[in-house]
Structures are given as C-alpha cells and as structure tokens.
Amino acid sequence: MLEPKDENIINEEFVFNDPVFSEGILLNAYNLIPTFSSVNNELDMATDNAVCNQPTNNILRMATGELSSFFNPVNRWGRYSHILYVNKFLENSNDVVWSKDPTINSYFSDRLKGEALALRALQHFYILQAHAGVGNNGTLLGIPYIDQFIEVDGNFNIPRLSFQETVERINNDFEAAFNLLPYVYTNNASEIHPKDQNKDEEAYLLVNSPNYEGRFCGLFVRAFQAKLNLLAASPAYLNNQEYYRKAAEYAAETINSAWNNILPIDGLTFYENNSNEILWAQPRSNNSSLEEDVYPPFIDGDGGNGRVNPSHNLVASFPLANGYPATTSNGLDLQNPYNNRDPRLQAYIVTNGSSISGQNINTGISGGGNRVDSLVTRSTRTGYYLRKHTVSNVSISQSGGNVSAFHYDGYLRATELFLILAEAQNEVVGADGVLPGSFLSAREILAQIRKRPQSPGFVDDYLNGLSDITDLIKNERRIELCFEGARFWDIRRWNLPLNEEVIGSEFLGSTEGYQTFPVENRNFQEFARFMPISNSEIQKFSALEQNKGW
Q1: Largest CA distance in the chain
Q2: Comparing C-alpha atoms, which of 217, 226, 285, 297 is closest to residue 255?
Q3: What is the pLDDT of residues 313-344, one digit of tens each?
Q4: Nearest 5 degrees, angle CA 454-CA 506-CA 318?
Q5: What's the CA gap between 472 and 425, in Å, rounded?
Q6: DSSP code for 161
Q7: CA 281, 287, 289 angle in degrees (round to 5)?
Q8: What one-character-per-residue DSSP string does 26-45 give?
Q9: Residues with Cβ < 8 Å from 124, sequence gap 6 or more?
Q10: What does residue 393 show for φ and ψ, rounded to 5 degrees?
Q11: DSSP class of residue 283?
C-alpha cells in the first residue's frame, strides 16, 4: 500500500502516439489571432480616432507618454511560445497515425502540416508588425525567425533578421502551407482546387470537408499574404513596388475567389448578421459583454461603461451623404452636423441625438449621465460613444434583465481585402489601372465601398472627379476599419504624424450650437513609429538588438 503510483503526467511519447493529443499541440497556435473587435477596438484609443474614459487603462497610458521597453501594451513577443508549439508538432507529425487508411493518413498529415506552417507564418507576421524597426546603425530590422523547436536549455540567443528577409521567410512558410492545404473546405468535388485534382477524390473530400471550416485553408493564406506584403511595401518599411504588386496579386485572388469581385451588400453591419462579408470567423457568441463595456450609461444610471469614446477627428472624416468631404463649403450644417451624412457615421458611432438600444442619447446640455464628463469613468469624454461591433437589440441594465444577442466576430473580411487591393494597385498603376489577375481598378473598388451604404441611385461625383485618390483610400480605410485595430498600424506604416490632438464636440444649446474642444494629447516620440522589444528580452539575449531610441 505504501508503494507510490506513477505520476499522472502525459509525456511526449504518449502525446505523439495519440492523434487527438497531437492535434491539441497544434491547436495552441490558433490562440491570440486578433479579431475585429476584442482588444482591437482598444488600439484606436492610441490614435486620433478615440480616447478612453478610464485613466488607468493601459492603452491610454501608452498613448499619453508611458510607452517604453518596460511598459508596452502592444507587446507580441510572447507569441513565440505558440510558434514553439507549432515547431514541436512539425517535428513529430510524421510519426503520428492519423488514420489506418494510408491515403487518408497521408492527406491528414499534409493538411495538418499545412495548418502548422500557416500558423507559424501568421504568428511571425504579428510579431513583425509590432516589433520590426530601425536598428542603431539605421538598418531596417525584422525579428528572429524560429523554425525549429528549442528545448528549455537550448539556445534562444537568436539575432534578428533584416526586415526583408523576415518577410521572405514568412512568405515562404505561407507558400509551403498553401501547397499542403485545401483551397477551401468542401464536400463538392467541383470545388477542389486544380492543385489537388490529381488526388483520390473520396479521401480528399473526407479529410477536407466543411467540418473543418474554422481551420486555416489556402484561401485564408492568400488573404494574409496580401496583408503581409502590403505592410512590407509601405513607406515606413521597404516602400517597394514589387511588394505592392504581390499584395495586389494575393488580394485580387482572394476577392475573385471568395466574392467574385463584388463587395457583399450586407457587410456594413457584419457584426450583427451572418454576412458573406466575413471570410474567416470565430464561432458566434451569445452575450452582452461588449455592450456592457461601451454603451452609454443612460440617464437613469443603467447601461454601460462608455469606455471607448470616438473622436470628433474621426467623425469629421465621414463624408456628407453626397460623398463630398464634410465641410461648410460643401454644405455641412454646423447646427445639425450629423444630418445629411454618410450612413456609416450612424452605423459606427453614437452621436448627440441618436439612439441606441431603444433610448435617445444626449451627450450635450441636459444630457444627464450621458453628457460629456458627467460620470467619471462612465460618460463620454468626446461627445460620442461607440456603436460599431455592438448589436442593436442588446439591452443593458445594471439592475438586471440584460438582453443578450449573437455577435459575429472574425479574422478576415471582404472590405479590408478590397481596400488592400485598392491601395496596392493605386501605388503601382494609379487610380484606373488594373494589374494582371485583378478585375477592378482602385477607383472601381472605392465606388463599391462608398456606394454600399447609400441609396441605389447614389452617384459619386466626388470620387469621379479626383485624379489622385491616394488620400481618399487612406480615409476609407480609416472609416471602414475603425475600431478593428488598423489605424494604429496604418499611421505608422504610412509615416503619418503620431501625435494628432484628439478633439471632442459638445452641444451647448440652440444658440451656441456645437463647439469643439481639446480632449487629449498624444505623446509618442518619433522613434515610437516602431514599437520596442521588451527590455527583459534585450537583457537576456546579447544577440538581440533593440529598435533605435528604446
């Protein structure tokens, strides 16, 4: 009775002799892929798009001067742990028996290795986006690329590659993944990609059935390659036409395959309906947590915490209903500034006088708890509340009786891919040029995006009259991708100013009308265009070079 039993610890030999446990090692790498909402709606609070009403919020602290190599809320270095999981899987996956049928086993092995390579590339991409930068000698640096499993006592002292070499390593992993993955998951033989049509049809459809639609596939690989190569091509990085061409090629392939070059018409409020706008989604969730976080507090004290406050800077970027910029010279009514505006404004932002969850919201005079700075840490600081990502029939009451709803969140959506193609193509062949493999010019893409929220008879005279649409493309990205984490990185890759003052707007009455006011100063050093690597990593590893300035 006194003899000790074996410890109930699963060892490596057991894991890779069981396909379920083996696959579990791989699935760890699906963690931390950013979605449209979640933490991404916070990143806009470090730009000229929004502020936070909670003084201790880490993004607010970063944006107002606390960013350092010791404090970095957008640190992504920890993703290397997920990369190591992938590498451990890849080292052992050939020894795993996925099926007793040799053909099915081979197809499973290929697909899962393809997923692993795609996930390794994707996690490196996110680390690169957050930590690439200029070294002390002026060289544009990337990140260490880890393509093997390193034991706990192994050598982690790995130098950074050049930025371009890192991009190429990521592209190579994506390309290898593409060759192993199904283009899409399907049970229809006619949808098998040409690269796979020489395979056993019955076995192929079994291994790559729609049951696996939440996993990486070739189409998703192409979409992320478009994002990667657009980053690489951007002015702050390689400023390179060839990478713009690659971004356009991959975006065009995705757009043609997934949407037949037509922007989904129901994509404006993709977050509250099962829209074809979303290419790759998380499982839908039934909750009210986002609404509790960002809804206004309401007059009677029930409601949300109003945490994310869109700026007047962002509101001003939404055009008039006729497509022209919202200026007085174009007809903006300063007494009623939210009337006659592009419908996306009310779809994404709660303005003074609009309603949400069945209640009218007044952020100005007589606004009660919803008024600017009325309730500390709950009321808006800018005169605006966030509507995007919330679902209209959710009801919040702190005294109980919340009504939840399904939310649709994901990783890839149509409008971003259309905008990638527009930006990349415009840089190479201008507003009306069309690169091989594409079927739409940049101007035609913007026409689809800007017409979607409008009436069927909308004519975009403003767009049609522009010879250079570069600034309009940037503005459309700002509008369409607001509160999805894009603006923070776009400002940096475009070399735009980091420290635009955030402005608010308040209604002071029928006589005074609306008045703008300063809300918050951004406080980034110029070298903060490139985020720091954690000081603890720099101290541990002598081969690891810090970005200049940190």
Answers
A1: 91
A2: 226
A3: 999 999 999 999 999 999 999 999 999 999 99
A4: 25
A5: 14
A6: P
A7: 100
A8: HHGGGTT---SSTTHHHHGG
A9: 83, 143, 145, 166, 169, 170, 173
A10: -95, 10
A11: P
Q: Using CA of residue 360, residue 363, residue 368, residue 369, what is the dihedral sign? A: positive
Using a 10 angstrom Cβ sphere, with 0-12 exposed, 13-18 middle and 19 or more buried, the burial of residue 372 is buried
- Token readout for 112 is 């899962």
Residue 524 one-letter amino acid: F
Tens-place pLDDT, residues 255-306 = 999 999 999 998 999 988 888 999 999 888 898 889 999 999 986 567 899 9
Residues 6+ apart with CB under 8 A from 482: 44, 49, 310, 314, 348, 388
Report the C-alpha gap between 491 and 74 in whole angstroms.
15
Token couple for 243: 């990478």
Query: Residues 6 or more apart from 37 whose CB is under 8 A from it?
Result: 271, 290, 389, 407, 409, 483, 484
The answer to pTM > 0.90 is: yes
Closest CA to 522 of 550, 500, 490, 549: 500
Query: CA–CA separation, 164 vs 229, rounded Å?
Result: 10
DSSP reduced 3-state for 133: strand
User: Rounded to an integer, what distance in angstroms lies between the CA atom of residue 342 and that of residue 337?
Assistant: 12
Quickly list DSSP for 385-411: EE-TT--TT-B--TTS--B-EEE--EE
**Tokens, residue 326:** 């919202």
Question: SS3 for 525-547, per residue?
Answer: CHHHHCCCCCHHHHHHCCCCCCC
- What tokens appear for 497 in the block? 């100013």
What 3-state class would DSSP assign to 83? helix
Q: 517 is written with which tokens?
A: 């006011």
Cα–Cα dist 95/18, whole Å: 10
- Which DSSP string corresponds to 284-353? PEEE-HHHHHHS---TTS-S----EEE-HHHHHHS-BTTSS-S-GGGT--TTSTTTTB-THHHHHEE-TT
